# Entry
Amino acid sequence: MDYQTIIVEEKNAVGYLTFNRPKQLNSFNETMHQEVSQVMNAWHKNEAIRSVVISAEGRGFCAGQDLNDRVVDPNADAPDLGVSIEKYYNPLIKLITEMPKPVICAVNGVAAGAGANIALACDIVIAAQSASFIQAFCRLGLVPDSGGTWFLPRLVGRAQAMGLALLGDKISAERAVQLGMIWQVVNDEQLKAEAEKVAEHLAKQPTYGLSLIKKAINASAHNTLDEQLLLERDLQRLAGRSSDYKEGVQAFMQKRSPEYKGC
# Structure
């Protein structure tokens, strides 16, 4: 399909979704929301796609909401920003976190506002050396959305999350790694290759088991230890019945490389 705001590619069992509004720093308008949602929903159901990479064209990853797409008339009634959150941003975050396969985010340049939190929602975040992250909401009198108030405290702790959200300071990719916000920083010219390498590696792994790992780690944020132990039991029961587990054990015993199918 032809898309106006994104580039989509599928190869080697990996789905590549690239934001493609570089002149607007890949900020979201309604069309971009609709196109991203369409692709991510399709990949959620497509068993042939076993990992996903989200990246961006141009000099920035994503500046969040395109304010030109949400004109605020000072003489009109105040807009209901909760509508776009409920209709677009919240479903997108849930699509990423509930995707039954790993989602890698390759961050080039600035990731601001919702753009930063979309990145943080992904399972593995790899950033270019020149990348940066900004919780820019406070500069407009807004609250971090797209899961920002959920992800940040769990990734960096309350003190750092509060500082990032209240001050809106830009932090470097190196600092983001130090805080535990993201997984890895690479040289700018290596970003695409590194994201592709990680995605293709994961696509060859037992991706059904990886989906259960995602489920377990996400649930740990609100479970008690007793609840988490029971969940681990239940998920391990499912994993142990999978074809991939059987293949992994057989490959180990036969001293060969496993050939996982993701089921």
The CA atoms of residues 85 and 261 lie 36 Å apart. The beta strands are 6-11, 14-19, 51-56, 60-62, 103-107, 110-112, 124-128, 132-134, 170-172, 184-186. The two ends are 28 Å apart (CA to CA).
